[in-house]
Amino acid sequence: MSGRQPTIDDFPANEVALSLTAPPNNQPPTNVLILLHGLGDTNASFETLGKQLSLPETTCISIRGPKALPFDLDGFHWGDDIVFDQATGNMDLDTGFQHSTRVITEKVIKDTLIKKCKFKSRNIMIFGFGQGGMAAVATARDLEGTDDISNIELGGVVSVGGVLPESSRISAAQKCRTPVLICGGEKSSALTDTAVNRMQNAFTHVEVRRWKKVGDGMPANREEMTPIMAFFARRLQSMRGIPKGSIEIA
């Protein structure tokens, strides 16, 4: 059974800013893809990404980071704080994600998509870039640790250049069942061996793709985008061809 197409009014405007892209050709939404931009960006760029992806039967929700950058800098971020690396002068990506994951988990996924719009958690996926990728994997890890909604496993997470934050808990006895695809460059990447091992200790299934480039920029060509689209193809579900009124047997 498909969920109901969400509207902006379904979400608490005082707690989350976002934009919606309905499925192509007015198809009923079977899936939801949540898009989380990188540090210093806004939801506008990933709203465009959602339209470009044009995934069948999939509503895309591009969420803006909850906090604005300081010093009149443009853009938003996902961290609980702003910390500058004294060695490089760059902003530290891993400054805690308690606030942003609470908003995504409670206000977007559980209260709106699952309770209001009647989507199953298995039909909800997250794509994040950089710091947004860290928020994505942290959300999946935190979400499965809740017990007020059963079967809280998500359809999957794709993270480009974002690994599990240090603040996220790891339990060897209870790995997160949500499958994860993490992508990054072969050099100067956040996907270090230590970071990948930590991901594998937290999630049951972790797929790693290293691109032949320096750094963890967004995919720039067909070769880099192919594993992401293949992951979507495996994890997104379809109701096409299923007669209306059919009952799913678990």
Structural write-up:
Helix content is 27%, strand content 19%. It is an alpha/beta fold and 250 residues long. Strands 1-3-2-6-7-8-9 form a seven-stranded mixed β-sheet, with helices on both faces. Strands 4-5 form a two-stranded antiparallel sheet. β2, α1 and β3 (58-63) form a beta-alpha-beta unit. α2 (98-116) crosses α3. The radius of gyration is 17 Å and the shape is globular.
Q: Which strands sit side by side, in order, in the main sheet? A: 1-3-2-6-7-8-9
The overall average pLDDT, rounded, is: 89
The fraction of residues assigned to DSSP E strands is 15-25%
Number of E strands = 9
Number of helices: 5
Shape estimate: globular
Radius of gyration: 17 Å
| Poorly predicted runs of 5 or more residues | 245-250
Report how far the terminal alpha carbons are from each other.
Answer: 12 Å
Class by helix and strand content?
A: alpha/beta
Largest sheet: 7 strands, mixed
H/E series, N to C? EEHEEEHEHEEHEH
Helical coverage, percent range: 25-40%
| Oligomeric form | single chain
What is the gist of this entry?
This protein is α/β, with parallel strands linked by helices and 250 residues long.
